[in-house]
Specification:
The protein has 371 residues and is of the alpha/beta class. The chain has two domains: 225 residues, Aspartate Aminotransferase, domain 2 (3-Layer(aba) Sandwich), CATH 3.40.640.10; 128 residues, Aspartate Aminotransferase, domain 1 (Alpha-Beta Complex), CATH 3.90.1150. The strands form three sheets. It has a seven-stranded mixed β-sheet, with helices on both faces. β4, α6 and β5 form a beta-alpha-beta unit. The longest helix has 32 residues. The radius of gyration is 21 Å and the shape is globular. The protein starts with 12 loop residues before the first helix and ends with a helix. The structure holds pyridoxal-5'-phosphate. The site of pyridoxal-5'-phosphate (PLP) has 14 residues, from α3 and α4.
């Protein structure tokens, strides 16, 4: 009996063929296939400017670095996110400020956010966790009034929309991740989106050793090397063509689980935020029986996944003085961590796979209440 994985990318000979074609051209560092990839992303999500990056962690770091902020400038991040969000802020030498999330959206709680804002707040990073988002109009209103920039962490949300706009294209910057488990993948990889040409140019220079062109050896600014590769672009261009089908399948998976598990009172599904057309990167359920259910399903060869660990509890941040609000009240983040299970959500799941997962969840609850 083979295991049902929590997530696997949809890759086949279409990607292999394109890589083969690109490798034969013998120019593997960022070139024409990458330009095509950036253009395809722009068209797909109606973004003005796109820079491909080695990964979105580096992209987020670059967004913060090109703003020339000072060491005590503050950047607000949600307390429940993958650690890359806050690490980019720390690596950029800025002060992360933790803000609690909303129990329903799993994204920034905007009421609590306003209490985190000070004169030193320069950037807010809303993370569109699992493809959902907060009230982006309200967030924009808050930021406009206080002259704060928005960097959308859309790592997990390519294809999701807020009021008909793609997530990642609403703020001053946005970023998507193409890591192996994301909605579409290039292995490692990221896209940095912006509306402003000046930011776009700076982002290109920053990833290219501080110069606007390759092959030039006089550098007028200090940069780094976060360039893309043609192999990543070769995969990405095929993956982008598959995106609509993947989105459709994610919707089917979410609705199928929801419909078939609706009678189990111990399981909760959370609705998407108002005005958000969410692509369910993962289908999540919430239950007090998290640990036991994960163990039971694992025994049945069904792989699931826990939520990200709340930042305030991360061992690596213990007593870290650079982080503000580390000792704050983050009951909601902890509750979500304690209850959330990501069910298998891959494109290639069959109806038989889904039925097996659902049957085993039902069996778990029958067994639990009989024992
Ligand atoms: C919310 C979030 N932010 C940032 C990242 C970092 O992206 P990358 O892996 O492309 O560096 C990820 C995923 O890996 C993520 O889930």
């Amino acid at each position: 009996m083979s295991q049902i994985n929590q997530i696997t990318p949809w890759l086949n000979n279409q990607e292999s063929k394109n890589i083969y074609k690109i490798v034969q051209k013998t120019y593997l560092t960022e070139n024409k296939e990458t330009l095509k990839f950036e253009k395809n992303i722009r068209n797909k999500i109606k973004a003005k400017f796109v820079n491909s990056y080695s990964n979105w962690t580096c992209g987020l770091y670059a967004c913060l670095k090109i703003l020339n902020l000072k060491g005590d400038d503050e950047v607000i991040v949600p307390n429940l996110t993958f650690i890359a969000t806050i690490n980019s802020v720390i690596m950029a030498g800025l002060r992360p400020v933790l803000c609690e999330i909303d129990e329903n959206s799993l994204c920034l709680d905007l009421k609590k956010l306003t209490k985190c804002i000070t004169k030193k707040t320069k950037v807010i990073i809303p993370v569109h966790l699992y493809g959902n988002c907060c009230d982006m109009d309200e967030l924009k209103k808050i930021c406009k009034k206080k002259k704060i920039l928005i960097i959308e962490d859309a790592a997990q949300s390519i294809g999701s929309k807020y009021k008909n706009k793609f997530l990642g294209t609403i703020g001053d910057f946005g970023g998507i991740s193409f890591y192996g488990n994301k909605i579409i993948t290039t292995g490692e990889g990221g896209a940095v989106i912006t509306k402003r040409q000046s930011f776009h140019k700076k982002l290109y220079k920053f990833k290219n050793h501080g110069r606007s062109k390759k092959g030039v050896f006089k550098h007028d600014s200090i940069g780094f090397n976060f360039m893309f590769t043609e192999m990543q672009a070769a995969i990405g261009n095929v993956q982008l063509k598959k995106l609509d089908k993947i989105i459709k399948k994610k919707k089917y998976i979410y609705e199928y689980y929801k419909k078939n598990l609706k009678n189990i009172n111990q399981i909760i599904f959370k609705d998407s935020s108002k005005n958000c057309l969410q692509v369910h990167w993962f289908t999540n359920i919430f239950t007090k029986d998290k640990i036991k259910l994960i163990k039971y399903l694992s025994y049945k060869k069904i792989q699931t996944r826990e939520c990200f660990y709340p930042l305030n509890l991360q061992p690596c941040f213990k007593k870290n003085k650079q982080i503000k609000n580390l000792d704050g009240d983050f009951k909601i983040s902890k509750k979500i961590f304690d209850n959330l299970i990501s069910l298998p959500s891959s494109f290639d799941l069959t109806k038989e796979d889904l039925d097996k997962i659902i049957l085993n969840i039902k069996k778990f609850y029958v067994k639990k209440y009989r024992d």
